[in-house]
Amino acid sequence: MFDLGAQELIVIFIVAFLVFGPKRLPELGRTLGKGIRELKAAISNLKDSIDESELNVAKEIKDIKTDLTDSIYKSIEPEINKITEVVENKKPENQAVDKAGAAPDEEKKEKTESGKDG
Question: Which of 25, 96, 104, 108 has the most CB atoms around its CB within 10 Å?
Answer without folding.
Answer: 25
